[in-house]
Structures are given as C-alpha cells and as structure tokens.
Amino acid sequence: MTNKANPLELPVRQPLLISFSGGRSSAFMVKWILSNCKYDNYEKIVLFANTGKERVETLEFINECDRRWNFGTVWIEADVQKEKGEGTKHKIVTFETASRNGEPFEEVIKKYGISNKAYPHCTRELKLQPIADYMRANGYKNYITAMGIRADEPDRLKADPKYVYPLADDIKASEKFIREWWARQEFDLQLADYEGNCDLCWKKSKRKLMTLLQDDPQMAEWWDLMERRYSKGQYYFYRGNESTKMLLEKAGKQNFIRWTDLQLLRERQTELFDTDLDFELPCHCKAS
C-alpha cells in the first residue's frame, strides 16, 4: 500500500528561535527577519528572557517593538528548581508582570552562588536554560537560533550550524549602521550604549561600570545586597574579585575618563584610550 501525503496538510517548517535581548542590534535583527523572505520557510519564535535586572528602558523598548511591529515576543523568566540536580525551567511573564527587582537573578544566586568571570553561570541559568526549556516544553526540536551579533563583533561568532547571524552574514551590519538606522525611526531605546541592558552586569568594562556608578550610586544597592547575603566574604561580582562596594568607592574617588555613548563620540569626533579600563566580556545584555 502506498502512503500519500494529505494535500491539505502543510509541510512542517523548521523552527527558528529569534533571540531578542532587548538591545538595538537585536531588535533590528528581529524586524529584519520577520520581514525578509529568506526566512519565510521557517516557523519563527521570538523570545526574550528577563533576568529581573534589565533596565526599565529595555522592557519599555521591547514592549514598544511589539506594539508597533507585532513581533509577538514571548516573555519568559528563569524558574529555578530548588532540588539539587534539577535544571532551571522557564515561566511565562508579560511586560506588566515581568520581574523588575532582580527576583529571578537572586534565585539563581541562592542556588549557584555569586556569578563572576570564574563562575559565569548567570547567562546559562537566566537566559540559555529557560530558553531551551521553553523550546523543549513546546515541542520544538532541531531548531536554529538567530543571534543579533554584528559583523564588527567577530569574536562572538560561532562556527555552528545551529546558529545564524543575519547581521554579520547577510547585512554586514556594524554598530554605526545600527545606531544610524535607529536614528531614523520614530522611537529608540532610551539608553546610551554603555547603560544596558542588565544595569551593572559584571561583564561590562570597568570604565562603563564606574561611569554608571558616578551617575547613579544607588544602582549598586542590589548588587551589594546580593554580595552581603551570598558571597560568604569570598566571592564577588567584579573582575579581580572586587566587590560592588569597592567599585562604588573607586567611582567616587578615582579620576578617569568617563565612558561616552559611541554615537555621541562620533558626533564629537573624539576617542577614548585605556585598554585596562575598557576591557569587557561579551554578553546578551548589551544595549547596542
């Protein structure tokens, strides 16, 4: 007997997970993918994983993208399992119900400790694991992930068939290209490039962190509280095992060239110098 496909059945399309960080590059990528015929044959899923420490401007920007451009973003957060050996799951939230006081992040810290360069589990538990759990729970298998990494960030690109990089491979977009594109839109992320999205992410350069703390010393309160609760006097967030309190004190006393938004720098035609202060690690939380 010959099996014949039902002519009314639509062919199964490969899932394309579009990872939306809430930054400008990521938002541009989502819009480009959703409107580009190259990706018409994929089932597209736009996901944003909220850590609870994203800037409120980031949450408002994502919501505005959804409102204006119908991204259909699924908002999720980490659902940390207290039992040892149980992996982090996900829970669905919305713009209105999304955590804004670091609640998911603290749950990760309770179980896994303070995250830093030696123990970089925050991205794994707050972003990667909840996203993977969402995809698994909804029956998505053999999916491809689209990441908003630009052509001028080659160190962040992976040679892996499970990932696609439209900004790097299809558009050859740079940070300058992205900022100029947003300057022509009716709305924009209301953050300088050094500000977001996760407010005092330990992967930011020391110059960026100190600039942020000069502008808003109260930003240190949550990070300092986490260290006092969970560091056991041994493990701190920042490079060199520097505590939030130490960094805040340096920001208040040390003379240094403050970080300025790159778009503003281009307008002023100036540059910053200091490789030690400018060193940082790549992360999902970048605003650009």
Q: Keywords, please?
A:
38% helix, 11 helices, Rossmann fold, six-stranded mixed β-sheet, alpha/beta, 288 residues, globular
Care to give the gist of this entry?
The protein is α/β, with parallel strands linked by helices. It contains 11 helices and 6 strands. Strands 4-3-2-1-5-6 form a 6-stranded mixed β-sheet.
Explain the overall architecture:
This protein is 38% helix and 11% strand. Strands 4-3-2-1-5-6 form a 6-stranded mixed β-sheet. It has one domain: Rossmann fold (3-Layer(aba) Sandwich). By secondary structure, it is an alpha/beta fold. The chain starts with 13 loop residues before the first strand and ends in a 10-residue tail after the last helix. It contains 11 helices and 6 strands. It is globular and about 65 Å long.
